[in-house]
Amino acid sequence: MKFLSAVILTALLAFATGLYGVMPWWSFAITSLIVAMAVHQKAGKAFLSGFVGLFLLWSILAFLKDSANEHLLATKVAKILPLGGSYIVLIVVTGVIGGLVAGLAALTGSYLRQRSN
Amino acid sequence: MRIVPMLISAIATTGLIIVLNTQLPVGGSKTPRLGYFLSPQKGFWQNAESANASHGGEITLTGIKSKVEVFMDERLVPHIYAENDADAYYAQGYLHAKYRLWQMEFQTHVAAGRLSEIVGSDRIDTDKYFRRMGMVYAAEKTMREASKNKEIKAAMEAYANGVNDYIQSLEPHEIPFEYKLLDYQPEEWTPFKTYLFLMFMSYDLTGRGITSDLQMTNAKNYFGYEDFDQLFTNVQDSLDPIIPKGTVYPSPAVPVTAPADVDSVYLGKTNTFSNATAPVVPDKNNGSNNWAVAGSKTKSGRPILANDPHLGLNLPSLWYEVQITTPTHSTYGASFPGSPAVIIGFNDNIAWGVTNAGRDVIDFYDMKFKDSTLEQYWYNGLWNKADIKEEVIKVKGQPDIIDRVAYTALGPVMYDASYKNDNTTGKYLAVRWTAHDGGQGLQTFYELNRAKNFNDYLNAIHKWTCPGQNFAFISKTGDVAMKQQGAFVARWKRQGDFIMPGEDTRYMWQGIIPNEENPMQKNPDRGFISSANQKSTDDTYPYYLGAADDFPLYRGIIINKRLSAMSNITPEDMQLLQTDNYNVFAEMARPALLKYLNEAALDADGKKYVSILKSWNLRNDIGEKGATVFRAIWDSLETTIWKDEFEKSKRSLPWPDEPVLLEVMLRDSVYYFADNANTPDKTETLYDAVLTAVQKASAKCKALEKDNQLEWGTFKDTRVSHLLKIDPLSRLHLPIGGGVHIINATTKVHGPSWRMIVHMTDEIEAYGVYPGGQSGNPGSKYYDNFVDSWAAGKYYRILFLTKEAAAKSSQIKWRITFNN
Fold first, then answer.
1. Measured distance CA(A77)–CA(B44) in Å, rounded
2. Cβ of B756: how many Cβ atoms within 10 Å?
3. Which end of chain B is more exposed for a tag (fewer CB within 10 A), N or C?
4. Is the dihedral of CA B82, B88, B91, B95 positive or negative?
């Protein structure tokens, strides 16, 4: 239960920081850290819930944009980056990058909580 | 103690964020900030436009006086209906920004010498190049003069307000894709940027002299004037000028005389300066076709006009289609994102189209300075004070660079001790350009948009100074006209073809040819007018037009030949002519090649390719192998003839133009340059040269055939490149024929950038297409949706609608309302 709430909270707060594009893209690292401090889990689980939260958020958002766009831009970007022109790979990479940042932030949060205990 | 792992993970988190928030160098360029770029709520995903996106809406803006309605048709062309002209230009600015903002700003950054600001230190030389030729100086001067006209000033300001209101409405995540890729932000638009953009067009269409004058000086010094004048001859036997041969010209109002010492000081070998390489050179093929047929030659009895400007093919396209309707006028055509009004188009009463005049309006002067401070230069027997302009070049991630440029009576000193290469050491070269003299900017097009008849047209174009154009014209009342118009220098023969002495007034320009003497033709008996960048007149015209290599010969010949033979012309006939792939150059060159070819001396491969050449239908259609064989043989022949002599010079020399060699072959079989300079004991003739050329070319053709590249379309491999030259954002390997010297002038990267045909029926029948799309967003399906039609030679029927008709049209998809 804790794991699931951490994932959902991480994703929701990250989504909120991304609204209107005003705050820096990495703002979700801070909210993910706070979530990990609030919902206490062991280090491994904390990392995983942060990772999963952002992986899901970013890859779903990217997937939605990409489907509506009929893969037009993602295919081009996946050639520039270069990812072999595969929009699927690009969506996964997007999710993994968001996930890694959030996961590490959550890990830090979990250690911080353990330390303040 | 959990402090150690806590610290490690905190450092890892921060480190990862920093890496993902930095532009990392990869190869020669930099990545975007990946975290930002991939963030779905901020980065590029936001530019992935939904295939079902609406392009309509209701917008409330303070910058307009009354309500403006815009109907977007199914090709995303806006039809703007405004109650006054300023509001129309406001809406045009808003729409240009909405669909083309990044391109507008990028192009003006190039013109202003501000690329380093965006991409870093790699482009400092490009920035210096544009600044030192006086682009910013000239744009400022034109703006000062043109703004004296209140209407133009108001139009520019309304347009800028429209652009800025769009920029201000943008949320950070909505900025165009390329800003995110290169990681910078849009800035405020100003009327000055429109003038910078127009200067860029002046450069693109008249700036070739910046390099060719230096190269021609090299060639003249290397070969001596006598040989030079043979190699780079101004005689064109096959010329069919824009104004037909035999036209009588009055004696000149500006009598020009060459200085007395021209033979020794100017044409002699005294000038030892050599070539400098420019970072950006206007394409030699920048040119165009336009023609118009009178009612006497058309099926309907009404005139038809056709125009296709040949420019570099880019995405986003240089052009943006628009209809502008206000109580003063209703005009449709291609506009420049970055400028108000329509540039090539038609209204209810007239249609117009332009091609480049190609006249030489840019010269270099060799200046003498007292010392390296550039403060005083020797001119007319005394030391004169130069104006020093300090150019501040901002460089991304580095301190600013200050570049001092001296301005003299003969223009800005482009090359000096601080901007030079190995060859230019010790020289001060000032560049004199008609674009430096200001002018009335957009006035001509502003008036053409509103012109109702021939007199309006003439009054409008007489305000045009640079770049000189051939303005084709038709009217509903049946007039057909062509006039070459611009501020053209009254030159003596060869004046300005080479670097000129800059110490006194004798080599200065002696005047500008009055508008009345610029070549013109109205309602000719032959029933048509045309121009394709060839010389505008024969040699009886009392002024020197410029070096012959500024004027391509062959498209003009074939256009005139075809138009003469046609009657009962329809717009479909004009479409077929505009996209015609017949190679008139090959028609003339093939018999000349075969005449000099000893076929018996060829091996089996050689014979095979010569037989392909012989059976070729002279068309550069995509599937023709003969077109490739011909090109390979001709290129090989030029190499055989020129390479030996030209390589002996250590300096960079241009090779003579194709017509020079062809006309020699058609004239006479003894040719000095046919002799290979590397075989002193042997004298080669044209017969030897052609045989060598065919042997080398057949080896090349064999290799091409092995790689399946012998068909013309594959061999030519036309592309439309993104402005940043990023392949995934470009359209590659397009199946389109044509080429140099062909009416369909499509080469690898260059060609018809807008094709338009206007039939002056009561309700105007017009067609258009360009290799791009109305949206500049690579994430939009409207980014390149015209490209395939363009390549296939297809046109779109243009919707030119009254507001009432637009409201009812099934081809109108969206409606934007601007409320004040």
1. 9
2. 30
3. N
4. positive
Contact between B673 and B231 under an 8 Å Cβ cutoff? The reply is: yes
Record: contact A25-B780, CB cut-off 8 A = no
Between the alpha carbon of residue B665 and those of residues B38, B94, B463, B696, the distances in Å are 61, 56, 43, 19
Residue of A nearest to B729 (CA): A76
CB contact under 8 A, A25 and B42: yes
- Inter-chain CB proximity B44 and A112 less than 8 Å: no
Residue with tokens 């043109």: B146
- Per residue in B373-394, pLDDT tens? 999 999 999 999 999 999 999 9
% residues pLDDT > 70 (chain B): 98
Provide mean pLDDT across the span B119-138: 94
Kindly report, residue by residue over B267-277, the tens digit of the pLDDT. Answer: 885 555 554 45
User: Do β-strands B398-408 and B387-395 pair in parallel, antiparallel, or remain unpaired?
Assistant: antiparallel
Q: What is the pLDDT of residue A51?
A: 97
pLDDT band of B308, cuts 50, 70, 90? very high
Report chain A's C-alpha Rg in angstroms: 15
A15 vs B: CB within 8 A? yes
| Burial degree of B1 (CB within 10 A; 0-12, 13-18, 19+) | exposed
Which chain A positions have a beta carbon within 8 Å of B5's beta carbon?
43, 111
Residues of A in contact with B775 (CB under 8 A): none
CA nearest A59 in B: which residue? B40
Block residue for tokens 């002495």: B501
**Token pair 């700003």: residue:** B105
Q: Where are the domains of chain B?
A: 584-714
The two tokens of residue B749 are 């990267």
Which amino acid makes up residue B550? D
pLDDT band at A116 (very low <50, low <70, confident <90, very high): low
Give the distance from residue A1's alpha carbon to the nearest chain B alpha carbon, in angstroms. Answer: 25
Strand partners, B390: B404
Measure the CA–CA gap between B175 and B183, rounded to whole angstroms: 11
Q: Considering CB atoms only, which of A19, A29, A80 is closest to B728?
A: A80
Within 8 A of B43 by CB-CB distance, chain A residues are 25
Rg (alpha carbons) of chain B, rounded to whole number: 28
Q: Considering only CA atoms, which of B431, B428, B495, B426 is closest in space to residue B266?
A: B495
Beta-carbon contacts below 8 Å between A and B: 129
What CATH topology corresponds to B584-714? 1.10.1400
pTM (2 d.p.): 0.95
Domain parsing of chain A, residue ranges:
2-116
ipTM exceeding 0.90?
yes
Which residues 6+ apart lie within 8 Å of B643 measured at CB? none
The beta-strand segments (E) located in B486-605 are 500-501, 520-522, 528-531
